[in-house]
Amino acid sequence: MYKLLRSILFSFDAEKVHYFVMRLLKIIHGIGPFRFIFRSTYVVEDRRLETDFLGLKFPNPVGLAAGFDKNAQYIDALADCGFGFIEIGTVTPKSQLGNDKPRLFRLKADQAILNRMGFNNDGVESAVLSLKKRKNKKMLIGGNIGKNKWTSNEDAKKDYLDCFCALHPHVDYFVVNVSSPNTPNLRALQEKEPLQDLLQTLYDHNQIQSHPKPILLKIAPDLSDSQIDEIIEIVQTTHTDGLIVSNTTISREGLRATDEVLESLGAGGISGKPLTARSTAMIKYIHQKTDGALPMIAVGGIHSAEDAIEKLKAGATLVQVYTGFIYEGPTLIKSINRALLQNLN
After folding, report:
1. Is the terminal CB of the chain with fewer CB neighbours within 10 Å at N or C?
2. In degrees rounded to 5, what are phi and psi of residue 242?
3. Can you give the residue range of the structural domain that contains 262?
């Protein structure tokens, strides 16, 4: 059924379809009987799926990655797709339009998506308002934070801190996004000095809160082993709680899409199946390098239960889906959770 629906939706502009589907889902979710049917179809409730991570108890280890619900507007509806947690954002201090459209493209032959959205969002105040309005208060929420496009890297720390302080009472964990390829010079913040300064500042402000929240760093899949080693050292030095591995890639290697197609689409980060092997390899490398001491959430190329289980075996504790959710539908979350239960038997 979903494959038929997907074939129809995939014939329209990717970004327009995304918002159309989310608005439709929200409307349907507001109708009691439909909400019950949706929840009974996709949600797997079993205490054996509960996962402890950084002092939080997740009802299941499958989450929705940042970028899908940037402004925290669809949490109640998405919760009934079976997710154990939802990450909003990337949120910036002020509202911004992002990059010029079109900026979201499907690479169907690769089961991938190319995007250059550019942190389009309504700003942190809007996200806070949406979080206050949500009815599902039990759903664990991550706050993915970034800087405005016009903010220089020298002043970026204030942007992250503004988002951190505004969201702190309303989210359960934070993700520092310095690895998106779609904001000019953002990835330069992954270099040692600015990254260490940023993470240390957030840690210091976190410690003066009455209830400190876990802080994770989201890293790019295009890092070399030596760069990963340096980030591990920085994360440990600044007492950052863990990593999300990984963001979208700027690599075009091994794609089925032709060079002509890729050139016509232009710049952007790629998510989906092309990331499966690389993100798993990074998780395995970090797990071995730290003797399993550094907590990780895996994201990148999870299109099946087997993909998710492979990430967990590599060293991650939780997984997130995004592109796989678009290509496979909400049955993906259900299939992962059921496979995890079968592995327990």
Report:
1. C
2. 180, -170
3. 2-344
**All residues at 6 or more sequence positions from 172 whose CB lies less than 8 Å from its CB, including other chains:** 56, 85, 140, 141, 142, 213, 214
Q: Is the pTM of this model over 0.85?
A: yes
Q: Is 240 within 8 Å of 275 (Cβ atoms)?
A: no
Residues belonging to the active site: 180
Cα separation, 188 vs 178, whole angstroms: 8
- pLDDT tens for the 345 residues of the chain, in order: 788 999 999 999 999 999 999 999 999 999 999 999 989 999 999 999 999 999 999 999 999 999 999 999 999 999 999 999 999 999 999 999 999 999 999 999 999 999 999 999 999 999 999 999 999 999 999 999 999 999 999 999 999 999 999 999 999 999 999 999 999 999 999 999 999 999 999 999 999 999 999 999 999 999 999 999 999 999 999 999 999 999 999 999 999 999 999 999 999 999 999 999 999 999 999 999 999 999 999 999 999 999 999 999 999 999 999 999 999 999 999 999 999 999 987
- CATH number for position 265: 3.20.20.70
Our count of domains for the chain comes to: 1
What is the rounded distance in angstroms from the CA atom of residue 208 to the CA atom of residue 52? 24
Query: Using CA atoms, how far apart are residues 64 and 218, in angstroms rounded to an integer?
Result: 14
